[in-house]
């Protein structure tokens, strides 16, 4: 674990001491090396499930795919930000990359944490760099509103979690995940206990987000600069899912009765957000609402607490992280050229940027869960395990898959096909950096078809 | 504006065609000419921007801006009428209870 944390910490001197000409090159190179080194976590050599541990940090098959995803995204985020930061003064560029690196540190500590309180502190700590990125470097005046929504929704959801964790620490004396998995299930009978259950999960449901509390997400995604959108879509939402999966260990017998409203909200959310996607005019807003829908499916899979549900949830989280981030990068290439997110304005791009169309096509196919991509595998596992849980969910999840396919195709057709507006005359050709960025998103998705064991988690 | 004259080779709009407007009053004719003048001004503005060799960015369409703003900010002008309350309840509240009832009955009584 330290062999990843110390190089990440050393990215700070790299950023602040590199000469201006080499700033981006060195930071991307070092973060790529860290990403490649993080792949070594994928070899699970121990029988207990937890490996590479010290007193406070460990990795297990649940956290490892998410950790590798986080480490993989850092070079991609820095690569994506290079263009829109180039007019800024040097120290501000350094500050921006430092914010991304500090976010990375908090995320590695969060996913690797073994004490739940440490996970909570890191969970909250990730809010700050993201807030600064959104409110300082966003593009429209609505970014202040977006930052407020983002901060206060997540904080309001997670303060009850703090109380619940402290209560649990008082009761059972420890919050270490190593020991919690072996404690007796708690007999939770009173109304207070049910509130405790809800308090444990609310923070993660807001973060995921669940349909009823999802309002912060479209705002935050739309107003954030590209690196902010990437990290939000790919990793920060998965913090919610990961937290839920960790907490489920402790919450067991009550979940069977109390999970119904949240499963209902998640399922209905897939359909509602899918329908909203079909009506969107703003490109990033469409991708943001599609994230809500996919995460609703993940929430449903986690809340029914079956092995296949968990496995499908992790696979969908990883696949959605990569695909959604790729779509945001593609939307950013369009935004940097036309300075508008309106889909109606930047149509017919296939005529002028055909290779970019290939990447749009692949990313849209990933989003609509085309087999054999892992997006489908995750969705299918969740859908089948929910079908086993109750037959009626098939109507909702099937309809949701249909709507997902239609808005993903709508996204592709609106941006790539159709008549090119006649007044678009001066678009830059696609830079190699942009091609590289999107290939680095899409190749892992394709490679994961071949070895899904890396993502399955510990239920297999 | 009322002394709009079209370009030498352009055709006159239908409303100003002398052969068509025998049933229009003088006021209406003047209004039509004014409107044709305004349209010509807008077209001229667009054409100037379109053919400007130094232009690198997109031409801003104020109608598009207004439309996008309207689509993205519905809640500023939201009013709770009978129709909106019915729609909100039908799509946002009732399905949750129906689904809860269906799922709970299926799992508790049918299994």
UniProtKB/TrEMBL annotation, chain A:
Residues 113-404 form the NADH:quinone oxidoreductase/Mrp antiporter transmembrane domain. The keyword Transport applies. It catalyses: a ubiquinone + NADH + 5 H(+)(in) = a ubiquinol + NAD(+) + 4 H(+)(out). Residues 1-110 form the NADH:ubiquinone oxidoreductase chain 4 N-terminal domain. One of its GO terms (cellular component) is mitochondrial membrane. Core subunit of the mitochondrial membrane respiratory chain NADH dehydrogenase (Complex I) which catalyzes electron transfer from NADH through the respiratory chain, using ubiquinone as an electron acceptor. Essential for the catalytic activity and assembly of complex I. This is NADH-ubiquinone oxidoreductase chain 4. It comes from Oncorhynchus tshawytscha. The lineage of its organism: Eukaryota, Metazoa, Chordata, Craniata, Vertebrata.
UniProtKB/TrEMBL annotation, chain B:
InterPro entries: NADH_UbQ_OxRdtase_NDUFB4_su. It is found in: Mitochondrion inner membrane. The keyword tRNA-binding does not apply. Coiled coil: none annotated. It is a single-pass membrane protein. The keyword Chloroplast does not apply. Keywords: Electron transport, Membrane, Mitochondrion, Mitochondrion inner membrane, Respiratory chain, Transmembrane, Transmembrane helix, Transport. Belongs to the complex I NDUFB4 subunit family. PANTHER family: NADH DEHYDROGENASE [UBIQUINONE] 1 BETA SUBCOMPLEX SUBUNIT 4, NADH-UBIQUINONE OXIDOREDUCTASE B15 SUBUNIT. This is NADH dehydrogenase [ubiquinone] 1 beta subcomplex subunit 4.
């Amino acid at each position: 674990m330290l062999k990843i944390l110390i190089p990440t910490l050393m990215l700070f001197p790299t950023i602040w001491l590199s000469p201006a000409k080499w700033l981006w090159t060195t930071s991307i190179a070092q973060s790529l090396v860290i990403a490649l080194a993080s792949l070594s976590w994928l070899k699970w050599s121990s029988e207990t499930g937890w490996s590479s541990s010290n007193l406070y940090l460990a990795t297990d098959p649940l956290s490892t795919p998410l950790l590798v995803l986080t480490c993989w995204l850092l070079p991609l985020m820095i690569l994506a930000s290079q263009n829109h930061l180039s007019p800024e003064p040097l120290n501000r560029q350094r500050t921006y990359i430092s914010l991304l690196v500090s976010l990375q540190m908090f995320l590695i500590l969060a996913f690797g944490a073994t004490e739940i309180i440490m996970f909570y502190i890191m969970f909250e700590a990730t809010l700050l760099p993201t807030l600064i990125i959104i409110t300082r470097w966003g593009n429209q005046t609505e970014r202040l509103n977006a930052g407020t929504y983002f901060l206060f929704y997540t904080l309001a959801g997670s303060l009850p979690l703090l109380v619940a964790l402290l209560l649990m620490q008082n009761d059972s004396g420890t919050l270490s995940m190593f020991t919690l998995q072996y404690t007796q299930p708690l007999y939770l009978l009173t109304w207070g206990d049910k509130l405790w259950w809800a308090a444990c999960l609310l923070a993660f449901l807001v973060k995921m987000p669940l349909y009823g509390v999802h309002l912060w997400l479209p705002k935050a995604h739309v107003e954030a600069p590209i690196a902010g959108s990437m990290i939000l879509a790919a990793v920060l939402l998965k913090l919610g899912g990961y937290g839920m999966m960790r907490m489920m260990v402790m919450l067991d017998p009550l979940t069977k009765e109390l999970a119904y409203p949240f499963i209902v909200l998640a399922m209905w959310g897939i359909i509602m957000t899918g329908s909203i996607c079909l009506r969107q005019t703003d490109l990033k807003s469409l991708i943001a609402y599609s994230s809500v829908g996919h995460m609703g499916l993940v929430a449903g899979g986690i809340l029914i607490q079956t092995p296949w549900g968990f496995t499908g949830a992790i696979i969908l989280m990883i696949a959605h992280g990569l695909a959604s981030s790729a779509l945001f990068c593609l939307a950013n290439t369009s935004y940097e050229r036309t300075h508008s997110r309106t889909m109606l304005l930047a149509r017919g791009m296939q005529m002028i940027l055909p290779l970019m169309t290939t990447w749009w096509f692949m990313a849209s196919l990933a989003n609509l869960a085309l087999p054999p991509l892992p997006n489908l595998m995750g969705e299918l596992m969740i859908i089948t395990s929910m079908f086993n849980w109750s037959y009626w969910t098939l109507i909702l999840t099937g309809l949701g898959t249909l709507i997902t396919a239609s808005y993903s195709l709508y996204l592709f057709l609106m941006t790539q096909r159709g008549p090119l507006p006649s007044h678009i005359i001066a678009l830059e050709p696609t830079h190699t950096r942009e091609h590289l960025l999107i290939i680095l998103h899409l190749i892992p998705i394709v490679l994961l078809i071949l070895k899904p064991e890396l993502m399955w988690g510990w239920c297999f | 504006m009322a002394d709009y004259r079209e370009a030498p080779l352009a055709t006159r709009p239908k409303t100003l065609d002398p052969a068509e407007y025998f049933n229009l009053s003088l006021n209406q004719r003047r209004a039509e000419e004014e409107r044709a003048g305004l349209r010509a001004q807008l077209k001229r503005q667009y054409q100037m921007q379109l053919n400007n060799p130094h232009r690198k960015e997109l031409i801003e369409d104020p109608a598009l801006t207004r439309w996008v703003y309207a689509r993205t900010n519905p809640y500023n002008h939201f009013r709770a009428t009978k129709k909106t309350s019915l729609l909100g309840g039908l799509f946002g509240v009732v399905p949750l209870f129906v689904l809860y009832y269906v799922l709970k009955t299926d799992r508790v009584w049918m299994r």
